[in-house]
# Entry
Amino acid sequence: MAKQEVTAGVDIGGTNTVLGLVDREGRVHLDLSIPTHAHEGPETFVARLAKTIAEMAKQTTATCDLKGIGIGAPNANYYRGTVESPPNLGWKGVVNLVEMIRRTHHLPIAITNDANAAALGEMIFGAAKGMKDFIVITLGTGLGSGIVCNGSLVYGADGFAGEIGHTIVDPDGRQCGCGRKGCLETYASATGICRTVSELLCEERNESVLREIRPSELTAKTIAEAARNGDAVARQAFEFTGRVLGLKLADSVAYTSPEAIILFGGLAQAGELIFEPTKRHMEESMLNIFRGKVRLLPSGLKEGNTAVLGASALIWNELPKR
Amino acid sequence: MAKQEVTAGVDIGGTNTVLGLVDREGRVHLDLSIPTHAHEGPETFVARLAKTIAEMAKQTTATCDLKGIGIGAPNANYYRGTVESPPNLGWKGVVNLVEMIRRTHHLPIAITNDANAAALGEMIFGAAKGMKDFIVITLGTGLGSGIVCNGSLVYGADGFAGEIGHTIVDPDGRQCGCGRKGCLETYASATGICRTVSELLCEERNESVLREIRPSELTAKTIAEAARNGDAVARQAFEFTGRVLGLKLADSVAYTSPEAIILFGGLAQAGELIFEPTKRHMEESMLNIFRGKVRLLPSGLKEGNTAVLGASALIWNELPKR
# Structure
């Protein structure tokens, strides 16, 4: 029997790095997780990563044929094959990750950031299969985005395109981690909705179960639970988040006229709580020629493996071109 | 001697339609203008247009070989080859312009809106030669935009992408012709700066030569002249316009990370009066990873022929593909 062609999908996180061998249909043949131990520095990390990939290939050598390696990592640059001062890894300067892995693995290797990998994952395996123009919005700690136009991911002149989370909602708005004020991700993200709850608890006098939770312990999940139980402040927080996000997604539609926008990540798990107000405000705020045309969809990737599937999709997407 | 290959560039305006035969280097071999007479309806117009192109080809038959026809028109759809309810032509519904011209001219023919044609004009003949990622902003009566990513114009799922003029500056802001409020073009356009002057004349008590001009007679050119003569209100108007435009261009950079943004059209003629504040506010508002990287450039197309060059570029850009 012919061996199954697979690529390795690698998602480098601040705590753990998750790996999987994924075939062209998105089936994961082997997956595992190693601690990132970023403090040991990039050289040590890459040596362990390369060894782990080699072991995975060896372990599946009877059934799988490894064709390439795709990597999702914070602050990754697709063009240069680098990660550049990734904040949650603590590595300084520019790390030539692709070049370092290529020393031991003579295969096609590519790297991009998590949000772009998610977009390619949706295109190859998920909700955007067969689409040529779409946007994936990752609502996690921040707001990441991957923009696909005419079947290709938009990297831009320097490889850093797709920062919709850092478009400005209000120049005098909330302080953002990027140093500026009022970025979309300070409102529309798991962190953003927690800030919104704090603001509402201060402005309103409603009773709310959220008043019993320490702000430091508040999560998007807790707020979603409270909203499902009818808590007025929690519901208001989702309405506000959907309004801000919907307005900015109407802008996104004016830029690239996507067929669909896919909401991905922790806050998107809240389902209709976030989809309904976002869709409603997006439609209300949209230029008439676009109204009723753009679908707002949940991720089509299986829970748990999404980051690995995205990273694998990155390199599957390259392989026909080589 | 071999004949010179040319394409016909056609710019359909509300009053006049301008035509030119343009070679691959952007030289115009013959150009002329016919009245559009839109009230006669699309059939009559297209018959006159097709006849004019045939006559131009005949007149230059000794030296030129017509290879294709490119058309810039309001509300044009590239995918469908149509113009759809163009407001300044008064044609109702969908007019299959490309199909109608193809009845008499068996050549490659393509159509797009004026802003997209301008972007292709800059890419093939102008300031964006050799660039793969850039945005052209047309500051005319409204604000048009053409976005190029990875060497291709972004048309989006429905062919109507690139409506940066209809991204929202302020949801409670100025009434826009599109029926919504606070669109960028109500601030950053030749019309927008006139509205800003009216607002400033009401809010401020400064003396200003602009108080002597009827609002209906105010133009971007008059405001530029007043600003050059040191008029404080006129200067404030350019500062305000540059602030609003610069902030939104910083958002544009976050979307597609262009190498350059090119300002085109009537208001861009004001030169440093509009470039300086726009550039300054764009840099101030930009995410740090993009700062200092994006050039703000004037059009590289010769005055007068810009629309014809853009329309011609549209079809030159297609020809290698066919």
